Input
Amino acid sequence: MNRRSFIYKSTAIATSGMLAPIPKIWAKKAYDKITILHTNDVHSRIEPFPVGGRLAGKGGYAKRAAIIKYIRAQEKNVLLLDAGDLIQGTPYFNLFNGELEIKLMNAMQYDVTTIGNHDFDAGMDGLENMVDSANFPFVSCNYNFDNTNLKNKISNYKIIKKSNIKVGIFGVGIQLEGLVPAEKYTDTTYVTPLNVARETASFLKNEANCDLVVCLSHLGYQYKDKTPSDKHLAQATNNIDLIIGGHTHTLLNQPEILKNVDGARVLVNQVGWGGTHVGRVDFYFEKKSRKIKVEPHIVIST
Output
């Protein structure tokens, strides 16, 4: 496939039901709009999956970059987020220890990511190199790095303003003990995510006055036991508008809509693994009341 054909096909996929105008029932009022694009568990999949498997030809940074570039050209306010596990899974990680992944994410202008369990696979020095090389912040509110080389390098949250829309983004990660070799995360301390997520979301919504609060979660979509998960987080907290998940490699056809402890809507989404899909959710804010309306989309396949 030549370059022109590739870009045409990629952008055609991106536009399929993804760039709808403001619904007519809203058209009489003035709204600010922001588009959230997101990935998770890319796992060093630099090139598309090889032929012969279920995911043959899917994924790879080039395809994803073409789709994201196209959407940015169509939309004024776009955020590109990731829910962790940037590395581990192909020889590119073994050769470059996460350096290539960060360079490509910088080129694609990611805005924020959180830390997945596999992001510790290069050890604390490797993770520090990734954080230092990134043009975007890593956020986590339930990993305490005070006794490590990452002290003061990882924030609980990041606030980004796009036009008139103020977005608070924070991250939560899975229990590391028993999942990651202790020598890889050293003195990183895990904090149960629910309480700290409640506190962080409350601060972002009620004190920082964010219009939108997004949680980047590497907890996993759901479990049969009481292990903290995205669905559990959505239903046991408040002040979170969107949870972008990772870890379980769950591919949702569109964001799931749940109710939080106050009965308010929370969207939960996760888009598989290997960069085969890009999630998209559009939020509209009425200019005066800041009341939110949402267009949850099906994910975009690469």
Q: What stands out?
A: The longest strand covers residues 277-286. The chain has one domain: 29-301.
